């Protein structure tokens, strides 16, 4: 157990690699109740959210969701999050635990110009993530509704173990899976949430479900090429530099940071986020320098050992002229330059039950058959 964003959180249960591989092969469950959750309601909820976020909220239909960012006036990322439209004038935003206070205050500040109510519900709704190729099969055992009807980036209501629960299908691991919002389960009375958690563990026994901690969450998201706020993105990094331009909709009339981002787009991006796969048995860590021909060109923002690639992987920001795939760089590990290769992100992504995207290439790999996967 470790302190994290004001909570005491599990780093691991049985071990990071075992939990990581459970998610890749079958299913794992994470308690993510530490994350921030805010409801936005009112007749001007949509225009308000279109103003404070970069993605186009008008494209959302009830019970759908999208990934997005909030920016400051300079175009820097205040946070990244998932926004769900629950009803015509009701939205749920889920953002990073470390930014709960900052994000809520930002939303509350800018809401004053709109007919909208902003309500922090973080401590009243428990939140779990059930991730992995067997996630739907396991949850269906205790669900009153057909979860197959909830497609990618959609959400819906059901009863899990007789408890009313909002279910969304997004994910932070590179696998299929669901986020579960157990309504009316405050921190002071977690009994309802515990009931759902235990029911999921029981339902997943036959496929060897594992409870997972922060360690596996980090290795999984890094293999999937996903950003961690505070490491890979922050208020001095723009979504364009972070390769998140797909969530920046310049066609909108206005949003906070638009002018700064338009200026950066027209002038050209000077640095960009890349993936690095180590060519030797070493692990890059955040803060390690990235070198090209002996000169510093950037630094690692996230790094770990990849259980799937069986090698060290990391992400870094480098000048755009050094961001080409297959370019060789050095990562300075304990003062010793160690070769790495710039690769296409994500390092890993499941496409279907028998195909994955692996270092930018689609290959056949049935669920659980990792021993047949040719390692680089």
Description:
Helix content is 18%, strand content 35%. The protein has 376 residues and is of the alpha+beta class. The protein folds into 2 domains: 216 residues, Gyrase A, domain 2 (2-Layer Sandwich); 106 residues, Aminomethyltransferase beta-barrel domains (Elongation Factor Tu (Ef-tu), domain 3, Beta Barrel), CATH 2.40.30.110. The strands form 5 sheets. It has a 6-stranded mixed sheet with strand order 10-11-12-9-3-13. A 6-stranded antiparallel beta barrel has the order 14-17-16-15-18-19. It has a 5-stranded antiparallel sheet with strand order 5-6-7-4-8, covered by helices on one side. A hairpin with an 8-residue loop joins strand 11 and strand 12. Helix 1 packs across helix 6. The mean pLDDT is 95.
| Proportion in β-strands | 35-45%
In helices, the fraction of residues equals 10-25%
Q: In one word, what is the shape?
A: globular
CATH homologous superfamily descriptor of the largest domain:
Probable tRNA modification gtpase trme, domain 1
* Contiguous uncertain segments of 5+ residues: none
Q: Which features characterize this protein?
A:
376 residues; alpha+beta; Gyrase A, domain 2; Elongation Factor Tu (Ef-tu), domain 3; 2 domains; 6-stranded mixed beta sheet; 6-stranded antiparallel beta barrel; 7 helices; globular
């Amino acid at each position: 157990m470790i302190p994290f964003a004001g909570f005491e959180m599990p780093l691991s249960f049985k071990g990071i690699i075992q939990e990581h591989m459970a998610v890749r092969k079958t299913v794992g469950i994470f308690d993510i109740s530490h994350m921030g959750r805010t409801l936005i309601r009112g007749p001007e909820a949509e225009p308000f959210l279109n103003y404070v976020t970069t993605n186009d909220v008008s494209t959302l239909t009830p019970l759908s969701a999208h990934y997005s960012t909030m920016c400051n006036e300079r175009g820097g990322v205040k946070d990244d999050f998932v926004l769900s439209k629950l009803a015509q004038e009701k939205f749920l935003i889920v953002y990073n635990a470390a930014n709960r206070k900052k994000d809520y205050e930002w939303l509350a500040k800018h809401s004053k110009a709109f007919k909208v109510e902003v309500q922090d519900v973080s401590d009243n709704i428990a939140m779990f993530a059930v991730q992995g190729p067997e996630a739907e099969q396991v949850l269906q055992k205790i669900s009153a509704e057909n979860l197959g009807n909830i497609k990618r980036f959609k959400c819906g209501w059901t009863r899990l173990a007789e408890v009313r629960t909002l279910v969304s299908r997004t994910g932070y691991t590179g696998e299929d899976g669901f986020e579960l919002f157990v309504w009316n389960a405050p921190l002071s009375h977690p009994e309802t949430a515990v009931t759902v958690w235990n029911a999921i563990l029981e339902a997943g026994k036959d496929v060897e479900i594992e409870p997972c901690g922060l360690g596996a969450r980090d290795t999984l998201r890094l293999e999937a090429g996903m950003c961690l706020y505070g490491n890979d993105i922050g208020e001095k990094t723009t979504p364009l530099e972070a390769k998140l331009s797909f969530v920046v909709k310049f066609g909108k009339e206005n949003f906070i940071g638009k002018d700064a981002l338009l200026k950066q787009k027209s002038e050209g991006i000077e640095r960009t986020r890349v993936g690095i796969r180590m060519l030797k048995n070493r692990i890059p860590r955040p803060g390690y320098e990235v070198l090209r021909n002996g000169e510093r060109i950037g630094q690692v923002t996230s790094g770990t050992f990849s259980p799937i690639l069986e090698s060290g992987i990391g992400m870094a920001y480098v000048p755009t002229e050094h961001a080409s795939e297959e370019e060789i760089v050095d990562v300075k590990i304990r003062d010793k330059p160690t070769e790495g290769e710039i690769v296409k992100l994500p390092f890993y992504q499941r496409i279907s039950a028998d195909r994955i995207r692996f270092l930018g290439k689609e290959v056949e790999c049935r669920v659980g058959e990792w021993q047949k996967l040719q390692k680089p």
